[in-house]
Amino acid sequence: MSRVGKYPVVVPNGVTVTVSGAEVSVKGKLGVSALQIVDDVETTLDGNHVWVKPKAETKRARMMWGTTRALINNMVKGVSEGFTVNLEINGVGYRAAVQGKVLQLQLGFSHDVNYPIPDDVTIKCEKPTSVSITGKDRQRVGQIAAEIRAYRGPEPYKGKGVKYETETILRKEGKKK
C-alpha cells in the first residue's frame, strides 16, 4: 500500500488545477504543466486538494498510485515556486560563464565546453565557480544538472571537478613514500 498516495496534493493560492479525463493540467505563475494519467489510477479535484486513488488492487495500480501523486505534487510545486539545483566548480582554472544562450565551461580540457541552454530552464553564474539551474520541471532541471556534472565529475584525491552544492566528496589519502 502506498504511503505517499494516501495524502492529498494541496494546491496553493495562485495555482489552478484542472482534471479532465485522463489529463491533469496545472497552471501557475511560472507556466503550465500537463500530465497524462495512466488507466490504473483515478484523480479527483476536491476544493484545493487533488486526490489520487487506485482503481483496482493490482500491484501496478498500487505502484502508479504513489508515482502519480508525486508527479502531480512536483508539477504544483514547479509552477508555483520552481526547482533549483546549484553546482560548484572546484579546481585551479576551472570556471563557468553564461554567454547568451550558451553555458561556457573551462574544466581543464584543451578546449572550452559549450553547453546550449534550453528554453525551459534558466542558468545563472553569480560567481565563476558556481552554477545555478532553475526551472519548473523537476526532472528536466535534474537532468541538465547531471549532464553538466558529467563533463568533469569530482575526483577523490583533490576534489577537482563539478559537484552538486550538497554533495560531499569522499577523499582518498593518495600515495605514500
UniProtKB/TrEMBL annotation:
<dbReference type="GO" id="GO:0022625">
    <property type="term" value="C:cytosolic large ribosomal subunit"/>
</dbReference>
<dbReference type="GO" id="GO:0003735">
    <property type="term" value="F:structural constituent of ribosome"/>
</dbReference>
<keyword id="KW-0689">Ribosomal protein</keyword>
<dbReference type="Pfam" id="PF00347">
    <property type="entry name" value="Ribosomal_L6"/>
</dbReference>
<comment type="similarity">
    <text>Belongs to the universal ribosomal protein uL6 family.</text>
</comment>
<comment type="function">
    <text>This protein binds to the 23S rRNA, and is important in its secondary structure. It is located near the subunit interface in the base of the L7/L12 stalk, and near the tRNA binding site of the peptidyltransferase center.</text>
</comment>
<dbReference type="GO" id="GO:0002181">
    <property type="term" value="P:cytoplasmic translation"/>
</dbReference>
<comment type="subunit">
    <text>Part of the 50S ribosomal subunit.</text>
</comment>
<feature type="domain" description="Large ribosomal subunit protein uL6 alpha-beta">
    <location>
        <begin position="11"/>
        <end position="82"/>
    </location>
</feature>
<dbReference type="InterPro" id="IPR002358">
    <property type="entry name" value="Ribosomal_uL6_CS"/>
</dbReference>
<feature type="domain" description="Large ribosomal subunit protein uL6 alpha-beta">
    <location>
        <begin position="91"/>
        <end position="164"/>
    </location>
</feature>
<protein>
    <recommendedName>
        <fullName>Large ribosomal subunit protein uL6</fullName>
    </recommendedName>
</protein>
<dbReference type="InterPro" id="IPR020040">
    <property type="entry name" value="Ribosomal_uL6_a/b-dom"/>
</dbReference>
<dbReference type="InterPro" id="IPR000702">
    <property type="entry name" value="Ribosomal_uL6-like"/>
</dbReference>
<dbReference type="InterPro" id="IPR019906">
    <property type="entry name" value="Ribosomal_uL6_bac-type"/>
</dbReference>
<keyword id="KW-0699">rRNA-binding</keyword>
<dbReference type="InterPro" id="IPR036789">
    <property type="entry name" value="Ribosomal_uL6-like_a/b-dom_sf"/>
</dbReference>
<keyword id="KW-0694">RNA-binding</keyword>
<keyword id="KW-0687">Ribonucleoprotein</keyword>
<dbReference type="GO" id="GO:0019843">
    <property type="term" value="F:rRNA binding"/>
</dbReference>
